[in-house]
Specification:
The protein has helices spanning 2-25, 42-48, 53-65, 74-90, 95-104, 111-124, 129-141, 146-159, 164-176, 181-194, 198-228; strands spanning 256-258, 264-266. It is mainly alpha-helical. A hairpin with a 5-residue loop joins strand 1 (256-258) and strand 2. 32% of the residues are buried.
Length: 271
């Protein structure tokens, strides 16, 4: 009898949900091929997927993959970070989700979201070295947490015996080193070589060019310091130093800046 009384209530709730969805169908919306604006609460996402968490995860990953690689708008990447974190909640083992998150999110100011995705993948995919490795790299490069970076690099070494020595050597270096554009460049090169998606490869190529520009600026900044005994106050002061004929152009049009101590850095969306 109790089940019979609950059934009409469930039907009414589902009918209300369906009616609300129909009302939103014709509402004006932004071009979702270019930008992201909407992230529904997790229970609503699950309801749209018919209660299937794996389908809900796939839908979020599909939405993330549909963003044009030429987009460099911060709000889009913020929403993408939320969608991919939600996907990892539904299915932490989703391979495409952690791979895309590692390649895109941290480079666009969404380090926390990327790390959430990667940590869940690293903890659940115990046979897979890559989420552990990418998590370690982000901890080193973006978060400057060398102890955590070294720990997860060693976890990656335990999962890939063929590269264990190299990974452990890398972990040792990460305990000692901080900001390393060349390390980041090597990671992006490897990801580009593994990808078959032309659009995705173009995005990685743009980010590689951006890092190469940063390297050139840092060589010039070191030469400037050696000659003047002080750091530069403007990027333009680096022209002519270290073989720098002109300021590098950022393909993503975000640009470069100087840190408080005069070190060239990448400009991100947070700034």
């Amino acid at each position: 009898m109790k089940k019979l009384r609950i059934l009409p209530l469930l039907v009414a709730v589902w009918a209300l949900f369906a009616w609300a969805s129909l009302q939103l169908r014709d509402a004006p919306r932004l071009d979702q091929q270019s930008v992201l604006r909407v992230r529904l609460p997790i229970p609503v996402q699950l309801a749209y997927a018919g209660g299937d968490p794996y389908l809900a995860a796939n839908l979020n990953v599909f939405r993330s993959l549909m963003v044009d690689a030429r987009i460099s708008e911060g709000e889009t990447y913020r929403v993408q970070g939320q969608l991919q974190a939600d996907a990892s909640f539904f299915n932490p083992r989703h391979e495409d989700n952690y791979y895309v998150a590692s390649a895109i999110l941290p480079w666009n100011g969404q380090v926390e979201a990327a790390q959430r995705v990667l940590l869940r993948a690293a903890q659940s995919r115990e046979w897979d070295m890559w989420p552990a490795f990418f998590y370690a790299f982000n901890a080193m490069y973006f978060e400057r947490d060398m102890a955590r970076a070294g720990h997860w690099a060693e976890v990656a070494a335990q999962r890939d015996t063929s590269n264990a020595d190299s990974l452990r050597a890398m972990a040792a270096k990460w305990y000692e080193r901080g900001d390393d554009p060349q390390m980041a460049l090597n990671i992006l090169k490897a990801m580009r070589e593994q990808s078959r998606d032309a659009n995705f490869r173009a995005l990685l190529q743009a980010r590689m060019a951006r890092l190469e520009g940063l390297q050139a600026l840092r060589v010039a900044a070191a030469a400037y310091r050696a000659e003047h005994g002080a750091p530069p106050s403007r990027l333009e002061e680096l022209l002519g130093y270290g073989g720098l004929p002109a300021l590098p152009q950022d393909p993503l049009q975000l640009g470069y800046a100087l840190s408080d101590d005069g070190q060239p850095v990448l400009v991100d969306h947070k700034r």
